[in-house]
Amino acid sequence: MASHIKCPNCGLYNTNQDYCTNCNTLLSYKKRRELTFAQDEKERRERERIQKEASPSFYEKHKDHRFLIVRVFVKVIHSIWMGFVAIGMFIAWLITAIAA
Fold first, then answer.
1. Fewer CB near the terminus (10 Å): N or C of the chain?
2. Which residues cross the membrane (predicted)?
3. First-to-last C-alpha distance (Å) of the chain
4. Segment-wise mean pLDDT, segments of 10 residues, the chain, 100 residues
5. What CA–CA distance (Å, rounded) separates 3 from 15?
6. pTM (2 decimals)?
C-alpha cells in the first residue's frame, strides 16, 4: 500500500519516502519520534552528569582533605556507615530467607 505524505515545509506530496524529495524535510512520524526520544535521552544523561559533578557526596568531597584529622574522621564515619549498611542487608536477607 502506497503512503502519500504531504511535506509540511514545501507542500510536495511524497510516496513511500521518509524524507521529502524536494527539500529533504523529515516526513516519517516514527523517525521524528525516535529522534526526539534520542535527543531527550541525551539531554537527560547530560543533566544527570552535571548534577553528579555539581553535588558530590560528603565522603567524596572530604576524603582527600588537606587536614589529616578531617580525612580520618570522614573515613571512620564512612566505615561505620558501611557497617550499618552491611548489617541491614544481612537482616533483610535473613528475613527473606526465613519467609521463603
1. N
2. 72-95
3. 56
4. 81 85 85 92 92 80 91 95 97 94
5. 5
6. 0.45
